[in-house]
Specification:
alpha/beta; 4-stranded parallel beta sheet
């Protein structure tokens, strides 16, 4: 069970996990080695220093960069994509901070809506964000009618 699955299961955990805890149901290394350059393409960081979005029901305990690095070491993966979880709505500060900590081996996916400024899009881009997330299964932050206008606005960022 990877970070994403563990994050969902984490809702049931009563205490905040410490950095030495792992967000995986296992402790052993996999029976196989991942290919060089493998990427964990969807994981979340949760940090209670950042405010949750209004109306959010998914509020798992902290899942920190330090905790995820333990999982990376166990799995043998060096690259990852940090995705802003629905918990934070369109506030991408937690993801940006995680990207700064991960360095060049990580990229990010932000949640934005049509009110995002061009300056903020540039800040996200320079912080390592390479995609936007429209979470249509979670009501609130984004809607399908935002897709085409947002795609047009971010196209110049590559």
């Amino acid at each position: 069970m990877g970070i994403a699955g563990a994050a969902l299961a984490a809702v049931a955990l009563p205490k905040l996990a410490r950095a030495e805890k792992t967000w995986s149901s296992g402790t052993e290394r996999p029976a196989f080695s991942l290919p060089e350059g493998a990427v964990d393409c969807h994981m979340h960081i949760y940090d209670d220093r950042f405010p949750v979005a209004s109306g959010t029901t998914l509020r798992p305990p902290n899942a920190t960069v330090a905790q995820y690095r333990l999982l990376q070491t166990r799995l043998g993966v060096k690259r990852n994509v940090v995705v802003t979880p629905s918990t934070y709505g369109t506030d991408n500060r937690c993801t940006l901070q995680a990207l700064e900590q991960f360095g060049d081996n990580a990229r990010g996916v932000a949640v934005v809506n049509s009110s995002v400024s061009d300056a903020e899009l540039k800040t996200l881009d320079s912080g390592g964000i390479r995609a936007v997330r429209l979470n249509l299964s979670y009501p609130g932050a984004t809607t399908l009618d935002m897709l085409a206008p947002l795609a047009a606005r971010i196209a110049s960022l590559g």
